[in-house]
Amino acid sequence: MNGVVIVAAGTGSRMNMGINKQVIKHEGQVIIAYTIEKFYNNSNIEDIVVVVKEDESEFFKKEILDKYNFKNVKIAYGGKERQDSVYNGLKLLDEKCDVVLIHDGARHFVSDKIIDQSIEEAKEHKAKVV
User: Fold this and answer.
1) Averaged pLDDT, 13-27
2) Which candidate, 100, 88, 86, places its Cα nearest to that of 47?
3) What residue spans of 41-105 are helical by DSSP H?
4) Pairing verdict, β 25-26 and 47-52
5) What are the phi and psi torsion angles at 41 (to 5°)?
6) Is residue 8 within 8 Å of residue 102, measured between CB atoms?
7) FRET partner for 50 with CA separation of 20 to 30 A, picked from 18, 62, 71, 80?
């Protein structure tokens, strides 16, 4: 079983936009929705956890998961640092996951080829960095 933790609990402070960069729209859809969709539609991914800021969780459920009809996507809350957010996401993954991908929610141009190759190479080498 393969899973992914999509980390989307940042502030986007370097962009100076005053909003979380994952909710910026690109061609009519928010970036995080594109990112989730890539993994959601990939046949090799069976478990998805998205890490968001706790105070944005209701917005995320309504405006992302419900609006774009993503079912069975779990929500974890961000921590003080990125590694804490990743850890919180890992704790919600199904214990049967053999391979876990960690992905930045604002990186929505990931392809099936990258996802699939990452899984295969992680199985072979026990780790993979894209």
Assistant:
1) 55
2) 100
3) 57-60, 82-92
4) unpaired
5) -90, 0
6) no
7) 18
The two counts, helices (H) then strands (E), for the chain are 4, 6
Helix (H/G/I), strand (E/B), else coil: 47: strand
Q: What is the pTM of this model?
A: 0.89
Yes or no: say if 46 and 101 are a contact pair by the CB < 8 Å rule.
Answer: no
Nearest to 78 by CA among 50, 110, 103, 102: 50
Which comes out higher in pLDDT, residue 129 or 11? 129
Q: Strand 25-26 to strand 29-30: parallel, antiparallel, or no bridges (unpaired)?
A: antiparallel
Q: How far apart are CA 117 and CA 64, in angstroms?
A: 27
Closest by alpha carbon to 36, among 9, 73, 11, 86?
Answer: 73
Give bridge partners of residue 38 from the DSSP assignment: none
